[in-house]
Amino acid sequence: MSSSTGFQTLVARSPALAAPLLRRLSPALLIPVLLLLAPSGAQAHHLIDFLQERPTPLLGLMSGLAHPVIGPDHLLFLLALSMVGWRQRSVWMLALLVVGLAGSGMGLLLPGLPAAEALVAFTLVVVGLVLLGRLHPLVLLPAFAMHGYVLSATVLGWNAAPIGSYLLGLLISQGLLLLLALGGLRTFAASLSNGTVRILAAALLGCGAAWTWSALVG
To answer: Which residue has the higher pLDDT, 199 or 157?
Structure first.
C-alpha cells in the first residue's frame, strides 16, 4: 500500500484525527485566497452582464442563481456567517432572507444610493468586528439588506417577468448558501480555536477595507 493510500485510509477511518488537521490547514489556505482577492475590488458581477443578451425570465433566473457565487464580497460575507455563534439558525436564516429581499425591493424603488458598492464591501469589516466581539450580531441584518440593495441594481429597467425570476434565483441561491453557512459549516466553524477565528476576522477586516477603498476611488 502506498503512503498516500495509507493516509487516505487513516483519515477515512479516523475523523477525529482528520479534524485537527483541517483546523490547522483551513486558515493557512483561506487567508492567502482572501488576500489575493482583495486587489480585485468589490464590484458586483452578474451572469447576464457576461452574456450580453436581452433580459428574459430564464436569463434572469440564471443571473440570480449565479451572483452569490461569482460575487466574491457577497460570497465571503455569506460564508463568514458560519463563524457567528447564532443558536437559532432557522430564525436567523429566515430573517436574513427577508431583509435581503426587502433590500432588493428598496433598491428597485429607490435606486442610486451613493457609495452603495463601498458599503457592501464594508460589510466584511462589520462581520469581522462581530467575530471579534466588538459589534452585536444584529448589525448583520442591515448589512445583509445592503447586499440585497446592490443586487437589485442589475435589473433596473427590466420587465416584470425577468425581475421576478431574478429575485427567485437570488432567493434560492442565497437560501442554499445560508443553509450551508448556518448549518453545514457551523459545526466546523465551532471547532476553530479563538486564535484562528481572530486571524480569519483580521483577514476579513483587511479584505473589507481594501475593497471599500477600491470601490470609493475606482
So the answer is: 199
